[in-house]
Write a structure and sequence with these properties.
Elements lengths: L4 E2 L16 E6 L9 E2 L32 E9 L2 E9 L3 E3 L30 E3 L32 E7 L6 E14 L2 E13 L4 E9 L8 E6 L2 E5 L11 E6 L7 E3 L25 E3 L3 E3 L7 E4 L10 E7 L10 E10 L11 E5 L8 E5 L5 E6 L5 E5 L10 E9 L9 E7 L5 E5 L11 E4 L18 E9 L5 H8 L12 E5 L4 E3 L4 E8 L12 E9 L2 E3 L7 E4 L5 E8 L2 E9 L11 E2 L7 E5 L1 E6 L1 H4 E3 L4 E10 L8 E3 L7 E10 L11 E4 L36 E8 L3 E11 L8 E12 L3 E3 L10 E3 L1
Parallel strand pairs: 30-38, 31-39, 41-48
Antiparallel strand pairs: 1-2, 2-14, 3-8, 4-5, 5-6, 6-7, 7-12, 8-9, 9-10, 10-11, 11-14, 12-13, 15-29, 16-19, 17-18, 18-29, 19-28, 20-25, 20-29, 21-22, 21-28, 22-23, 23-24, 25-26, 26-27, 30-32, 32-36, 33-35, 33-37, 34-36, 37-39, 40-42, 42-43, 42-46, 44-47, 45-46, 47-48, 49-50
């Protein structure tokens, strides 16, 4: 079935202009097939049109002209206005009624033109929805012998083809209640009931509702009223210009526009990890957290408190932006028909004149030709370009602006696609510093394109460029980005632009650098953990986000450039991060300083090195020891540990590791340092055992572990080892107790005619887990219990 995206947004009558609870927007026409839904007619079960107990019904069934149903369960709680309902009544003349039993006649005067009663606003029809306010008559010809008058006519041949129906569809929390008028004619006069109407009202569990218009053939000449009414001061009447009614195969979505932003990004976090989803907080109730892309980072110099700093880039493949959590076509967003986006912007360069350049401020484009982009041009204008759902490109451009560099400017863009038949009823506009809008008006039956991606602020996310678009980033600072799902007035934009809030507290005590051993190899990367602490004991962690700079003195150190080098980001919502580095042979003393928000921490940094020192020892060579399964072994089962003897191929940090040669006479010593528990049992049944060969070979050493190499059980040297050409050998480890310990080793390489003697060391963290769980029922001995490996 054909789909049209048409925003059928009404012009409110003046009495309701400031009090309407709902606004309306286009939505995709998506007719729900009612053929299997429950019919509501004469003597139908479980629901029927009776008019009983109602006020002013025009007919007595089986004549169904101007009648109303009893209360019909919705299937969920639907809130209309501020009242929650679980039932609704269906009135034949295109109305749904909530707690209102008015039946009422359907024609005020036959005319022509035919006119209708109970027009909004009218207290008699409070708490009602009117999908098409004509005099509909679903009386079926099957009941014609029972008509009180033989002159009464109708075109309804059978209830299977001409009917009113209801159904609850979907699953919680996304259920819908669907009411359909299918092929229902309208009463024109006592001798004329003709035409055919396909109408549908959908009540959604999220509180929105939809009117759908299929095939409509008029029998009469009247102009129908369409809208809703909660009270005589809170209602909406839709008008459609010369057409007087919505086109076929169109749909209208009604929703409550948020008095607050749909999303609001104040940029009040301390720092964001690049690509950290949701770290850019949404301060609205929608909780649509955003993501900082590229080198976008929080800055202390915002308009209100802090802001988002967008670095300069001119590459299509580089994106420095705030990716918001708002996608125009998402459920609950409702921004295809109308909306407003506003923000503060401070450019690093003047808007126009010498050195000015084009920059992309907003962009949601992901398909070429389907535009949504706001560009500041090199001449200082703002150019807003969108493509509507009919494929036509719409744009508006301000006059050239002369703002100097480092000047805060408030920018807002709005759009309103209302599909009114009157010429130039649709519009897009730009407002600068709350002044009168620069506006472009046009006529379209479309809305925004449904192909738009998430809204990005500060850069072009796709690299696709429209009429005056650019791949250049904003090169400046953004603050207080707000997104609304309705077209704000000039006054509302101005009021929102001056709103303020208190700045959050960034109470950080100190930073800590942590490592298990504070030693490593010059040719292998080391890794430091940087922790942000909120108190002296670091028992309370700081999670607002921070940017720090790592430093070192002594042996040359190179921090991983792919991870930011010496600049390290602890993203919002986290309290630590890791940074890799290489240190040349020797010792280096590390430091850490806050350089972002907060700029200065309360106390000096700390380290967990020996005696609290921050000194890293880097050896020219050593042992790379790797336990299987990331160091997790099963108690009592031998596990292969690889040991490789390597040394640096040069004196610079990160020079490649190369295998150590001449290992035939080398002596490997192994021992352990208990972690948890602090000591292991000293009996042979719970001892750690090193096996000098495959698992089936008997142990060459046994007994309990000690803490020095001279106390290795059996012998200092593990026998039966052979190093391959890559200086790799395998030892077999078996440990009976569960717990954590560090397996340590040294390899003494004697001097040769071409190389000096070497003493290499290394370690590997090991965790022993139980072999299985023993399960015994009451009265069963341990010997009979089952064990699962």
């Amino acid at each position: 079935m054909a789909r049209l995206l048409a925003l059928l947004l009404l012009l409110l009558v003046s009495a309701a202009a400031g009090a309407a609870t709902y606004t309306s927007a286009s939505t995709a026409f998506d007719w729900v097939d009612p053929s299997t839904h429950t019919k509501v007619g004469y003597l139908t079960n479980p629901y029927r049109l009776t008019g009983g107990g109602s006020t002013g019904c025009g007919s007595v069934p089986p004549v169904l002209d101007d009648t109303i149903s009893g209360a019909i369960p919705i299937g969920f709680t639907f809130t209309f206005g501020a009242t929650a309902y679980t039932t609704v009544q269906v009135q034949t003349n295109g109305r749904l009624q909530f707690g209102n039993t008015l039946c009422g006649y359907g024609t005020n005067a036959i005319g022509p033109p035919q006119t209708y009663p109970y027009l909004y606003p009218n207290a008699s029809v409070n708490n009602t929805m009117k999908v098409f306010g004509v005099d509909l008559d679903p009386t079926n010809l099957v009941d014609k012998p029972n008509y009180p008058s033989a002159t009464r006519k109708t075109t309804c041949l059978a209830i299977s083809t001409c009917y009113i129906s209801v159904a609850t569809i979907g699953t919680a929390p996304s259920r819908s209640f669907v009411v359909t008028w299918k092929n229902v004619p309208e009463w024109v006069s006592a001798s004329n009931t003709s035409g055919s109407f396909d109408l549908q009202v959908i009540l959604n569990e999220n509180g929105t509702f939809i009117y759908q218009y299929g095939n409509i053939v008029h029998g009469g000449t009247g102009s129908a009223q369409i809208g809703w009414q909660l009270s005589t001061s809170d209602y909406e009447v839709l008008t459609f210009g010369a057409a007087s009614e919505p086109p076929p195969n169109t749909a209208i979505l009604f929703y409550v526009p948020s008095a607050n932003p749909l999303a609001e990004y104040r940029f009040e976090q301390g720092a964001w990890s690049p690509g950290g989803a949701g770290q850019v907080q949404d301060s609205s109730a929608g909780a649509r957290g955003g993501t900082a892309l590229g080198d976008t980072q929080a800055t202390a110099s915002g308009k209100v408190c802090r802001g988002a700093s967008i670095p300069s880039n001119t590459a299509a493949a580089t994106v420095d932006a705030i990716r918001t959590g708002v996608r125009f076509a998402d459920s609950g967003v409702n921004m295809l028909g109308q909306g407003t986006v506003m923000f503060w912007y401070r450019a690093e360069t003047a808007w126009s004149g010498s050195g000015a350049k084009a920059v992309q401020l907003l962009d949601a484009t992901q398909t070429s030709g389907q535009w949504f982009a706001l560009t500041k041009t090199a001449s200082g204008t703002l150019f807003f370009e969108v493509t509507d759902s009919t494929g036509v490109v719409r744009s508006v451009e301000t006059s050239a602006q002369t703002f100097a560099a480092d000047t805060w400017v408030h920018v807002a863009v709005r759009w309103n696609f209302n599909a009114l038949a009157a010429a130039n009823s649709d519009r897009i506009s730009i407002l600068i510093n709350g002044a009168a809008p620069t506006q472009s008006s046009f006529t379209t039956t479309g809305s925004l394109s449904t192909s738009l991606t998430q809204l990005h602020a500060g850069d072009n996310p796709s690299g696709l460029v429209g009429t005056k678009g650019t791949v250049n980033s904003a090169d400046g600072t953004l603050d207080d980005l707000r997104i609304y799902n309705f077209e704000m007035t000039q006054g509302q934009v101005g009021g929102a632009s001056v709103q303020t809030y208190s700045c959050g507290s960034f109470a950080i005590d100190h930073f800590e650098l942590r490592h298990a051993s504070w030693s490593g190899l010059a040719c292998a990367p080391g890794s430091l953990t940087v922790v942000a602490c909120s108190n002296a004991a670091c028992s309370s962690l700081y999670t607002q986000g921070a940017v720090v700079t790592l430093g070192s003195t002594g042996a040359a150190t190179v921090f991983d450039p792919a991870a930011g080098g010496s600049r390290v980001v602890i993203g919002f919502g986290t309290s630590s991060t890791n940074q890799s580095f290489y240190t040349a042979p020797g010792t280096a003393t590390f430091s850490v300083t806050g350089t972002g928000i907060p700029v200065v921490e309360s106390n000096p940094p700390r380290c967990n090195g020996p005696g609290g020192a921050c000194t890293w020892t880097s050896a020219n060579g050593g042992l790379l020891m790797t336990a299987p399964n990331a160091g997790v072994i099963t108690g009592g089962k031998p596990a292969a540990v690889t040991v490789q003897a390597v040394q640096s191929s040069g004196s610079t940090p990160g020079a490649p590791c190369v295998p150590v040669q001449n290992l035939a006479s080398a002596g490997l010593k192994l021992w352990s340092t208990p972690g948890t528990p602090a000591a292991f049992a000293s009996t042979s049944t719970s001892a750690s055992v090193v096996v000098g060969g495959p698992p089936q070979v008997a142990a060459s050493a046994s007994g309990s572990w000690a803490s020095t190499p001279s106390s290795v059980p059996g012998s200092d040297n593990v026998s039966g080892l052979a190093f391959d050409a890559s200086a790799i050998t395998t030892v077999w480890l078996r440990h009976m107790d569960t717990g954590q310990f560090t397996l340590r080793g040294t390899l003494d390489v004697p001097a040769s005619s071409t190389a000096p003697a070497l003493s290499l060391s290394g370690n590997a963290a090991v965790t022993t887990v139980p072999v299985g769980l023993g399960v015994a029922a009451a009265g069963v001995t341990a010997a009979n219990a089952t064990q699962t490996a």
